[in-house]
Specification:
By secondary structure, the protein is of the alpha+beta class. It contains 5 helices and 9 strands. The protein is 26% helix and 31% strand. Strands 1, 2, 3, 4, 5, 6, 7, 8 and 9 form a 9-stranded antiparallel beta sheet that branches.
Length: 189
């Protein structure tokens, strides 16, 4: 059985359930997740969640930025091409193969090893409600060193103020919190 994960990231990251199902869920369902979401100067919402992970930044970065690392906790199929302009391609279907039409593709905008990963979704699974609104966002994943681990902060910027954007925001507010909790489980074993 594989663990599913949702990120803005990524976006990496999830695409499960519907917006209506997500409304009954909250980021508060996950102890240890902090929410410092905000509205930027242009009036766009930014979803910002963080959690402390009991592992060094290098290990946590590799859990996102390498094929084996991402498959170890997030999805059963992943292929990571870590470079500016590269791709994180993944699927929740264990039978999926790289290049399949139903895969999730997140383009790597830029990265700083062990510190920062910036991605944006360029392909969502067929039927994902809110795809257009989500693809207008960018996800910044920060790996902040702590004395006893790493604070992972996921900031998904660029949400507009329409029904589609609000639904996708709600979907990922819960989903990104879930993702952080799953990441912590990986390193808490």
């Amino acid at each position: 059985m594989f663990k599913s994960t949702m990120i803005a990231a990524a976006a990496l990251l999830a695409f499960v359930g519907t917006a209506n199902a997500q409304q009954s869920r909250s980021w508060k369902d996950f102890p240890g997740v902090s929410n410092t979401s905000y509205i930027d100067a242009a009036g766009q919402k930014a979803l910002q969640l963080a959690m402390d992970i009991p592992a060094p930044p290098k290990a946590v970065f590799e859990a996102f930025a390498t094929t084996d690392g991402f498959k170890s906790w997030a999805v059963p199929m992943a292929q990571v091409d870590l470079r500016t302009g590269g791709m994180i391609e993944s699927s929740y279907d264990p039978k999926a193969k790289p290049g399949d039409a139903g895969n999730i593709k997140n383009q790597i905008v830029t990265f700083i090893p062990d510190h920062l990963l910036v991605i944006r979704n360029i392909q969502a699974p067929e039927g994902f409600a809110g795809k257009d609104a989500f693809q207008k966002t960018v996800t910044v994943i920060e790996f902040i060193p702590l004395a006893d681990g790493t604070r992972v902060r996921l900031t998904n910027t660029g949400y507009g103020d329409n029904a589609e954007a609000r639904a996708v925001y709600g979907h990922f507010e819960w989903g990104n919190a879930y993702t952080l909790a799953e990441l912590k489980k990986k390193f808490s074993k």
